[in-house]
Amino acid sequence: MKEIVVISGKGGTGKTSLAASLAFLSGEEAIIADCDVDAADMHLLLSPDFGHREDFCSGQLAVIDSEICTLCGLCMEKCRFDAIETNGSGYFVKTIDCEGCGYCARICPVEAISMKDQLAGEFYISTTRINNTLVHAKLAPGAENSGKLVAKVKKEARRMAEKENKKYVIADGSPGIGCPVISSLSGADFVVIVTEPSVSGIHDMKRVYELVRKFDIKSSCIINKHDLNPEITGQIMEFIEKESIVHICNIPYSRDFTDAMTKGLTVTENGNADMSTLIQDAWVKIKQNIND
Hints:
about 290 residues, alpha/beta, nine-stranded mixed β-sheet, Alpha-Beta Plaits
């Protein structure tokens, strides 16, 4: 079993559209993992049934028992995150500001404060409309440990792929170079970097490639909307040749991406035969390189 991770240095490159297209083309050969838990959107194109759902808890939250609290105010005075306030008749914790450090619970003279596990998101295992399995999750607004939730998604996707003897795990990673991207890359066999010919596109592609190099993972590149700026496309081509990055393909700008999204379809299903063939050829090339 091989794990393919699709990433990008920035948002808006077409990463998820292409990852969903690979999911469509892979059919029953792959388990699909949506590792973009901060802004999960692969479900918009694959229409999963959310068949299995469970809570994801991470970190802790201070809770004040008003029946025990003596209103001494020590917790509010000592909280370095200003997460505790009073309404005049009692003290309460502002959940968005609490960092779960537990200091208030340690110093409370009457032990009125306890630390509770914090609900940080939801985890799902679904069957999609194209009859493959999607492992995905949603991080709660302002919640921490997106990297830990990504690790849970990847671990379950790999477990299912091994159990069901699938050839691939196809993971849609987060944009950027933060914790969820690092977690997405951990254990991967092959990386597809999706970029675009813009100043920020080439800059962020180079940044994310530096991260991939630290993991020593074989890398490839798809240049989306390549015809919008031929000069920067040329600079990207020079860079990937210099770094021995596998060039998968160049995709021209097309409204098919937007049209497909509004219909809840992958680009390969949207009726443009040339675009569909281009992405099918890209999938063939990815498989050839990952199995070399």
